[in-house]
Design the sequence.
């Protein structure tokens, strides 16, 4: 068995190196697809909110919910407490709704999907079942497979049908949120906004008003989701914001692992992305949520790139509920993101594993919140921040032990790695303990990529970029290991690519 | 194999001259030892040959089979067959020893336009070479040099050498920090690699390593120059009398 382990690990790392070498440019997904789009008029207003709602054929209660959010939003101000510098965003100079013309009538099968859209996903290297999900084929959302990126079972529609049957057999609902609003209104109504309320924060409130789509997952009691579920997000249209909303409900004693990936074309203008993810985790249930965020980061001078303002929160509502957030954040010009855990149930557990890479002019302000409300709750934070170029990378985290969260524990480890001497790393931990029996540990380190390590690697024949990739992947190992296998491979190569040109 | 001509080197950051005209010629399959007091420039010579930053070559050349090393990047020197066994092997946290080895082997193969070694062949080869050095599977899995004992680190260097199959091996004080048993093991590893096509430059303070790795030539280095060259008996002379007489002679 031991030999087998070695094999697998080796393969992964070799893959990384090969990928790095195969890359000629810096951002691999920067091309755009020429496609005819239907846009709503620029800007946001009550009319736009109504339009989005009607395009999605939503029931009245959903529209009202959106309008409440919108009315609240116009009274709110954009927050500026994060360590981020960017020009003022003109919220009226964006499109809030863009849909390929060919999708006006929802395709029933792969054959009906615009070939350009199919080609886009093929070029992105997203397995066919994901192509189906993203192109919005009815029914295809319910597909998935265990080995998302590496397995070769993705070249026919029937494969997908098998999975659909398999998921349905297990009682799992996996579909777009717009579909869920129509098909499963009782679930959506009960849970939407219950973790991230409409008025939670400026960006989440905007999302509540204008979200166009996203994913919905429901895992019934006692069910282990028979395969990993994944969604892949891509922004294609210019000047268009993307506002997706994801709602995952893990009923009592259930389990699901969910993966999310993101890319966008190279554009000179900044684009807004404000997503909301809500996880509801009931008694004895467990959710693993992994993200590889690779939005376009802008060019080396800081021109263009995605502004990524995301609110992600998990509510461990039942006793012994468990959540694990794993994120690899390599893209975006601006990242503002704090996937959080509300540990409400007694003995519930939250984990947060993060790799945040900022190169060139990128700025990242990211971290987590662990809010301990229940007794004997446990949380663990492992954050690896890597800064290169002129980038600024901030870890911002809150650990809060409430009076009733007796005998609770937190362990936090924040490591920062600097490449070059023009970048910055910052760690901003907030710790509040309001009872006497809980324990909070915080460890933080900052180091530079060591010249001796690089020379050692090079003296064995690796070139400088291979050496940096190897050392940085080593630095990130604990987090990479928390990712599902197939995602870990993608993440490793991404780590290497994101740092291209950062040395020398 | 290796031909060093009139090599002068100073520190890049300050005006400190370390090597003052080193001349050395090592034939194919020969084992040369360099001995000398602290600060004589022995380690600097090994770093300059392998291309470490921080040194400036002001004069001279160093050729491996006719190719000028001093103009190459460190990885290119490795690819043409130069290997330095470090006095202080570097720790790389999170990177498996096996991964490191395989990345290195394939990087060199690639640089030489050879096909990469298959996973199966690689594993077989590593196991075989590791066994001879008494390196177990556990040590191959651990992160590179992290938490290794002094002996484990040095054996690991020899394992890398065995896997990379260089033509010219430089051993920089490989005996430092080793007990007698560990030194024997390392020496056996080195001796197993001796052959017509492979040359060695062994840098050491002590004669005892040379009991195990028998050199063809011994050079004494002092103040940045080779001041005396002889056979194995020269090492014994140093062992018995110290460097003082030799230093006095050379002035």
Sequence:
């Amino acid at each position: 068995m031991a030999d087998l382990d070695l094999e697998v690990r080796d393969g992964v790392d070799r893959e990384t190196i090969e990928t790095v070498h195969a890359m000629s440019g810096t951002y691999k997904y920067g091309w755009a697809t020429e496609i005819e789009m239907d846009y709503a008029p620029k800007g946001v207003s009550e009319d736009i909110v109504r339009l989005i709602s009607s395009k999605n054929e939503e029931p009245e209660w959903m529209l009202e919910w959106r309008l409440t959010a919108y009315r609240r939003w116009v009274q709110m101000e954009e927050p500026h407490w994060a360590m981020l510098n960017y020009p003022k965003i003109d919220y009226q100079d964006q499109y809030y709704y863009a849909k390929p013309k060919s999708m006006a009538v929802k395709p029933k099968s792969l054959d009906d999907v615009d070939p350009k859209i199919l080609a886009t996903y093929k070029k992105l290297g997203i397995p066919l079942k994901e192509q189906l999900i993203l192109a919005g084929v009815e029914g295809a959302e319910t597909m998935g497979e265990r080995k998302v990126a590496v397995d070769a079972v993705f070249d026919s529609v029937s494969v997908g049908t098998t999975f659909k049957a398999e998921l349905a057999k297990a009682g799992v609902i996996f579909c777009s949120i717009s579909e869920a609003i129509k098909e499963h209104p009782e679930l959506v109504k009960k849970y939407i906004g219950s973790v991230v309320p409409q008025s939670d924060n400026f960006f989440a409130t905007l999302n509540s008003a204008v979200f166009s789509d996203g994913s919905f997952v429901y895992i019934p009691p006692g069910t282990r989701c028979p395969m990993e579920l994944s969604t892949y997000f891509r922004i294609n249209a210019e000047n268009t914001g993307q506002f997706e909303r994801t709602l995952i409900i893990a009923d009592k004693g259930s389990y699901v692992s969910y993966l999310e990936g993101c890319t966008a074309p190279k554009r000179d203008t900044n684009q807004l992305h404000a997503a909301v993810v809500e996880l509801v985790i009931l008694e004895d249930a467990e959710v693993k949520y992994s993200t590889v965020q690779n939005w376009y980061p802008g060019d080396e001078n800081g021109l263009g790139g995605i502004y990524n303002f995301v609110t992600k929160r998990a509510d461990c509502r039942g006793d012994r509920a468990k959540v694990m957030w794993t994120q690899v954040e390599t893209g975006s010009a601006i990242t503002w993101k704090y996937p959080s855990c509300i540990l409400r149930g007694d003995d519930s557990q939250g984990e947060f594993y993060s790799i945040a890479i900022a190169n060139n002019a990128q700025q990242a302000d990211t971290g987590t919140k662990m809010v301990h409300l229940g007794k004997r709750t446990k949380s663990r934070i492992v954050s690896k921040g890597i800064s290169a170029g002129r980038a600024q990378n901030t870890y911002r985290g809150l650990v809060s032990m409430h009076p009733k969260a007796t005998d609770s524990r937190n362990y936090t480890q924040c490591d920062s790695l600097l490449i070059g001497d023009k970048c910055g790393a910052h760690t901003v931990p907030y710790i509040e303990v309001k009872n006497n029996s809980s324990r909070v540990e915080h460890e933080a380190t900052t180091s530079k990529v060591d010249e001796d390590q690089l020379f050692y690697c090079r003296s064995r024949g690796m070139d400088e970029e291979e050496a940096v990739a190897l050392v940085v992947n080593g630095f990130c190992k604990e987090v990479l290991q928390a990712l599902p296998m197939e995602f870990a491979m993608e993440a490793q190569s991404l780590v290497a690519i994101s740092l291209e040109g950062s040395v020398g | 194999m290796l031909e060093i001509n009139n090599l002068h080197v100073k520190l890049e950051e300050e005006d400190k001259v370390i090597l003052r005209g080193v001349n050395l010629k090592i034939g194919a399959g020969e084992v040369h030892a360099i001995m000398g007091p602290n600060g004589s420039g022995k380690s600097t010579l090994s770093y300059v040959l392998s291309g470490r930053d921080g040194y400036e070559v002001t004069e001279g050349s160093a050729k491996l089979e006719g190719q000028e090393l001093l103009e190459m990047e460190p990885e290119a020197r490795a690819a043409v067959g130069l290997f330095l066994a470090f006095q202080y092997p570097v720790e790389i946290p999170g990177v498996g020893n096996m991964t490191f080895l395989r990345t290195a082997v394939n990087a060199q193969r690639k640089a030489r336009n050879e096909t990469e070694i298959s996973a199966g062949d690689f594993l077989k080869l590593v196991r075989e070479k590791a066994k001879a050095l008494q390196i177990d599977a556990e040590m191959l899995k651990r992160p590179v040099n992290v938490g290794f004992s002094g002996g484990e680190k040095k054996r690991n260097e020899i394992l890398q050498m065995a896997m990379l199959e260089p033509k010219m091996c430089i051993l920089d004080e490989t005996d430092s920090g080793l007990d007698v048993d560990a030194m024997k093991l390392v020496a056996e590893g080195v001796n197993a690699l001796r052959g017509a096509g492979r040359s060695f430059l062994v840098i050491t303070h002590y004669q005892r390593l040379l009991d195990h790795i028998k050199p063809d030539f011994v050079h004494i280095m002092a103040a940045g120059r080779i001041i005396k060259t002889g056979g194995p008996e020269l090492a014994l002379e140093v062992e018995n009398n110290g460097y003082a007489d030799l230093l006095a002679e050379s002035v």
Observations:
- Residues 1-25, 128-162 of chain A have pLDDT under 50 and may be disordered.
- Residues 2-22 of chain A form the longest helix (21 residues).
